[in-house]
Every structure is written in structure tokens, then in C-alpha cells.
Amino acid sequence: MDSRDVTAFATKLNGPWHTWALRTFMLIVLAHWAEHLVQAYQVYVLAWPMHQARGVLGQVFPWLVHSEVLHYGYALIMLAGIWVLLPGFVGRSRAWWLAALVIQFWHHIEHALLQAQVIAGRTLFGAAAPTSILQLWFPRLELHLFYNTVVFIPMVVAMYYHVYPNAVETREMRCSCSLHSNPATA
Question: Cα(89)–Cα(62) distance, rounded to whole angstroms?
């Protein structure tokens, strides 16, 4: 696959395939949310110890959670998805989608730090377990719920403005995501 193929694929992904790509990406995002909400339910409602509260996939494949593979993989998928789909956004929706990208980049750094500690077999800050920077001050479960929330909110706002663009944004769009008529895709 050469660079022209990649460019053509990205153009389709942010043009005629944008609606499909966004829906697929949002399913992945919602599945990850479900994992965290199940984990929070396991801790706060079922009173499971944190090391046993592994969400849904972690119950079946505990090594995914303990090795940080699941969380780091999700952080990478989120970062890549937001980055790849950014060109399809214009105007106000682009500004909000870009905000989600910046926040997710930091979230990815935190997960990369955790993954590096697992791989190296050494923790930072004298911690008993792999620890991210903000985890020094905030409990891990709550911190990750916070990160996912502060990435998700600008994504939702971006999606709203993307689906309901103003007249100028509607003319600039290369996809058919708008619920208004778009002369570029008609």
C-alpha cells in the first residue's frame, strides 16, 4: 500500500464514509465506557476489591487488565481514531474534536507511562504498582472515569455541531453527516 492509497482511503473516510466511520468509532468508545462503568459497578455496588474489578473483558481475560494491554490499546485506538477522523470536521465541530484530540493525547501519555512500567518491571515514584502522574493525587478508577469523561464531552459536542452545522459549515463539509442538505454531497 503506497501513500496514494493511504491518502485515498483517508479522503473516503472523511468524505463519503465519514458517517459510517464515526458510527463505528463511537461504538468502540461506548464499549470502552461500558467496561469502565461495569468496573465502577463492581467496586462501588458489589464491593469487589479493586484487583478483582476488571470490567467485562478483564473477567474473561484478566491479563488484559493487569498487563495494561487493554487500556493502552484503547488509548491508542482513541488517539488514532480522533486523529484520522479530524479532517472530516469543520468549523465549530472541528474545534471541539480537536479539543478531544489534545486531551486524549495526554490520556495516551498517562497510559504509555503505565505500559512502560509494566514492560520494564519497575514502577515510578516508589509506588507499589504502575502509577501515572495524576494517579499520584487521584485514585486510578476515578481518574480514568474522569479522563474518559473529559475526552467524551468534547466529542459529543463536536458530533452535535457536525450533525447540526450552520450554513457556512454545511457548505464546507465533504461528508453527508449533516442532517441539513449539503450541496457538496448532493
Answer: 37
Please, which pLDDT band fits residue 105 given cuts at 50, 70 and 90? very high
Q: Cα separation of 181 and 174, whole Å?
A: 12
Is the four-CA dihedral 16, 21, 23, 24 of positive or negative sign? positive
Angle between helices 69-85 and 91-120 (to 10 degrees): 150
Q: What values do phi and psi take at 115, rounded to 5?
A: -60, -40
Split at pLDDT 50, 70, 90, the class of 186 is very low
Give the pLDDT confidence of 35-82 residue by residue, as tens digits: 889 989 999 999 999 888 888 888 888 877 777 788 888 889 999 999
Model confidence pLDDT, tens digit, residues 27-46: 999 988 888 899 899 999 99
Q: What are the extents of the domains in the chain?
A: 3-172
d(CA 88, CA 132): 32
Indicate the Cα dihedral angle 70, 72, 76, 82, nearest 10°.
80
d(CA 149, CA 151): 5
d(CA 3, CA 64): 33
The residues, ordered by sequence, that sit 6+ positions from 91 with a Cβ below 8 Å of its Cβ are 161, 165, 166, 168, 169, 172
